[in-house]
Amino acid sequence: MNTALDCIPCLVRSALDASRLFTDDPAVHERIVREVLQTTADMDLSIRPPLMAQRIHRRLRELTGNGDPYGPAKVRFNALAAELLPALEAELDAAADPFNMAVRLAIAGNIIDLGPNLHLSEAHIRESLEQALATPLDGDSDAFRREIDAAREILYLADNAGEIYFDRPLLKRLPEGRVTVAVRGLPVLNDATLKDAREAGLHELARLMDNGSDAPGTVIEDCHDAFRAAFESADLLIAKGQGNFETLIGCGRPVWYLFKAKCAVVAREVGKPLNTHLLMREPQG
């Protein structure tokens, strides 16, 4: 997915918000915004939006010396998700179709994304999760289930801290012994790392690996060899979140994308209304 003109003000706004999270120094805030404005003026719009975000956050880390400014937020959202999950799992287990409900919950968890909304509140997350289980799902969960049942090797590309707790019910319903969960190799935004995945207990449900990259998506050429081998050998991939969608769509691999269309650019790309909960198969042929 290419960068749209509408992405540029969003990237600048995101850079300013992130710089204020990194440091209280107004001089650093101004320097970051000016650098981003200069970069975007000459930016190749054929690159994918998460690559620009990767460059911005690398520069922020250089200027501030802070390797993981979203760390406290990740701890907070992990704790909130751990608190909320048991009641949601009980509701899911009592549902007429627990698998379909597990897919809905995994997508609902995608609300925990500090890229488009740095000031996301716990109250909003609680409200969104309650509404999500009654929100129509745009996609064919029966076809998704059939491909899962037929798969010998599944690579599950996780997204954000906090969100990964709500992946647990779906992971429990995937074929035992056939699943590897991949997370980011280094901190970027509030994306999940191996530390977050272990805290969420994902190692109890699947093999874990990181992809070696600090991009807020899956940029194959930026990932280490072990991840690339796993990506190519899997006969089914499940990709959570907009960042993975933006970086992988068009890859031609057997990918199912699970995400909430939180951005008008992405909503236009998929031809769906803003805030649609999507279960979308990578186009074939």
Could you explain how this protein is built, in words?
It is a single chain. By secondary structure, the protein is α/β, with parallel strands linked by helices. The chain folds into 2 domains: 7-64; 71-281, 3-Layer(aba) Sandwich (Rossmann fold), CATH 3.40.50. Helices cover 48% and strands 11% of the residues. The chain has helices spanning 7-22, 26-41, 49-64, 71-93, 98-108, 122-132, 141-150, 168-172, 194-199, 225-233, 241-248, 264-270, and strands spanning 137-138, 154-157, 179-183, 207-210, 236-240, 255-260, 277-281. A 7-stranded mixed beta sheet has the order 1-7-6-5-2-3-4, with helices on both faces. The protein is globular, with a radius of gyration of 18 Å. The mean pLDDT is 90.
- Enter the CATH topology name of the largest domain: Rossmann fold
Strand order in the sheet with the most strands: 1-7-6-5-2-3-4
Query: How many β strands by DSSP?
Result: 7
The description of the largest β-sheet is: 7 strands, mixed
Which series of helices and strands comes N to C?
A: HHHHHHEHEHEHEHEHEHE
SS-derived structural category: alpha/beta
How many separate structural domains? Answer: 2
Q: Tell me, what's the shape?
A: globular
Number of helices: 12
What is Rg?
A: 18 Å
Fraction in beta strands: 5-15%
Which residues form runs of ≥5 with pLDDT under 50?
A: none
CATH architecture of the largest domain: 3-Layer(aba) Sandwich
Determine the fraction of residues in helical runs and give it as a percent range. 40-55%
CATH C-level label of the largest domain: Alpha Beta
